[in-house]
Hints:
Layout: E1 4-12, H1 18-28, E2 32-44, E3 47-53, H2 56-70, E4 74-77, H3 83-94, E5 102-104, H4 122-129, E6 135-136, H5 140-147, H6 154-165, E7 171-174, E8 183-190, E9 193-200, H7 210-223, H8 228-244, H9 264-272
Parallel strand pairs: 1-2, 1-4, 4-5, 5-6
Antiparallel strand pairs: 2-3, 7-8, 8-9
Helix pairs in contact: 1-7, 2-3, 3-4, 5-6, 7-8
Amino acid sequence: xxxxxLIVAGSDSGGGAGIQADIKAVTCLGAFAMTAVTALTAQNTxxxxxxxxxxxxxxxxQIDVVVSDLGVDAVKTGMLHDVPVIEAVxxxxxxxxxxxxxxxxPVMVAKGGHRLLEExxxxxLMRLMIPRATVITPNVPExxxxxxxxxxxxxxxxxxxxxxxxxxxxxxxMKGGHLPGERVTDLxxxxxxxxxxxxxxxxxxxxxxxxxxLASAIAAxxxxxxxxxEAVIRARHYVALALASAPGYGQGHGPLxxxxxxDPVRLAxxxxx
Length: 273
């Protein structure tokens, strides 16, 4: 049930989001993580200080050498900051033979407000990445940008999710955490219909990397052969546990506890060895 997940995303020096969160989530769910880094960021729980883009040609090379040697069972994309990067990644994904499930997390803005996707790249993301996706995982602000429509309620989420599905992706997982309320509802929309997943809101400021973690957890499930619905259910449960047991690090939006799946008895035995 291992499953090989290729993560194409930016790096987070604070370890809570981006490639670092992706690797932790995939590993802690029993799959094998591989990476193609799209950008380096200098950031912590309080925000992004700087971004150093990786040239598209080198992103391609990372993908090519990984796939040609190790193979791939699923792809997860995160921060794709400009048009040339989006074009390069879309072409690489299209060339995969055989094709594999693709989870597109349309990362646009960091928790602290720093833009991670150039404004002129939104249309390229919609045109080149979304139609190639098995599932896209926008939060409410990202979905508002993609659809050009405000989301103020669950009915708005349903309407926008259906609109995004019409862009050509296989499914939309619309995350409702930005809407107010004591419960959080996510919507999974496919051509077969719509299903809502709801749970109590976990009140914490330690939410850095929740989107990256959820998308990577879904990708791990798909790489391991789970159906999309089952992968989403497992991923949501994992994120909820990781949120509830967040270690409390940092002065801003702190990280999750990605290692929540680690068996404490086994870990204690290892520490005594």
